[in-house]
Amino acid sequence: MPTTTPHPQNTDELYQALQENDRRPYGRTRTVIAEELAEAAEQFAEPGPLIDALMELQEAYTYGSEPRKSPVVFARLLGLFDEQPDAFDERTRHQLFWRFKWVAGALRALPEIPLATLRQWQQEMRGRYEKAGLGLQPYYNQAYQLATHIGEDTALAHELWAGRTRTPLSDCEACEICLRARHHLAAGDDERALTTWETVLSGKESCQEEPARSVSYALLPLLRTGRVDRARELHLAGYRGCRRNPSMAGEVGRHLEFCALTGNEARGLELLAENRGLFEEVDSPLEQLDFLTGVEVLLHRVELLGHGEVPAAGFAGRVWTAAGLRAEVRARADDLAARFDARNGTTAHADLRRARLGRAPLLDTLELTLRTRTLDDVASAAPSAPKATPLAPVTDPLAPESAPAAVRASSGHPSSDPAPSESLPALITRARALQELGHPDADACWARLRTLVAASDYVHPDDPEVGPLVRLRADLLADEASRADERDDHAVAVPLYEEAAGLYDDAGAAGDAAIARAFALLAAAEMGAGAEGVEDARDAEDARDAE
Which residues pair with 321 in a beta bridge? Predict the structure, then answer.
């Protein structure tokens, strides 16, 4: 993949390029640039630039879901440390010992790595920590995760890890909370798991992967314990934290499973279409297995309801129906589970797949969006799906009826430009429906509405389906907040979400208000810790207003 990054000629240019790359989202572009920069760092005599470039490269591999490459880079770093320990300052030394955990996770994710090698790496980590005088709580954390992965009795491993005092090299509080909650979940104790999770689900504890990871695991326990509204809010807010992210494909799979078990199969197909890139981008076999199992739960449910012939977004290279894709997914996932179980000498992964696929729906229908689509809607729209585009998602019926059929069919989704004869109420309704589906064409609708509402002669339609002007203003604020969130400008997003929530309250849209507040918490979690992040965002907004 070619890049436009210039070849650094000195260390200043290298570090500037490393900083720029660090701001890019994880994925192939960031990874390829990291590879180029690591190669460029070889030219410098001093080891520091190479160490930093290799650190960036391993991070790109780890969070870009390429576990096969991460241990190779770490081996190079470890060799440099053994040869030139003084070249590592306090920061890079800390990072080196932290990344023993990354390698442990990468090796678990590869079924071709023998179990003996996994255990050998655990001992290598323990020996290195002991030699450096470091606490062993992180080692016992990894030992517990290996026991869970294999399917061994985890009682002792959990006690040895959870009963120890945390160290500077322990996983962050949010990640450890998630692991403890999942331990209770595996034991069948939903209530204890949810109690353990509360500080993460509320946004008080967070990190790069949390609360999105915890939310995905907590959805079904919330339903099983009757917390339906909380499950709805967390699904709508939490899905945004993992969508299209190769390193969180398993989390996407659990959101698809949630849709399948709540009567939202059509929404599940929409989300699957939005994440079709994960079929090709996820290089981690363990992440693939997790994702594909969630996909299969959804497609199995679609088939059971008699809609196996509806289009579904899947692997590149052909047009898929739900039934055809399910057969392909099942074969691949069964093979992956068998490979892991053969490596581990247990049936843990096949058993977990069987349990997930055997779950009955928890609710007949849980209304997640303003305009809930059904599989009948999808089936009726299927004939207009584009015939020449292999990866076309389910055709969206939300395009205005007045738009030319050729325009609607050419892209497989609603036109981003309103038809000339489209009424204002129709435009507002369509924008909301597209937004709830996470459809990219919503942006153009909101932009058009923002221009119309700002005009001095704007007259709001007296239409009960559209609602009052205050609700539309809330929608526009929420859209603005979402776009700020997408560009990681969380300090702007938080107060916008909160203002939108207040306007939704004024409009009597309590559900939308709750969702906006949930988004505010998630955006604040990206900035810092929960409520403190919210306060920081408010302070930043006040400062901008003062200027």
Answer: 311
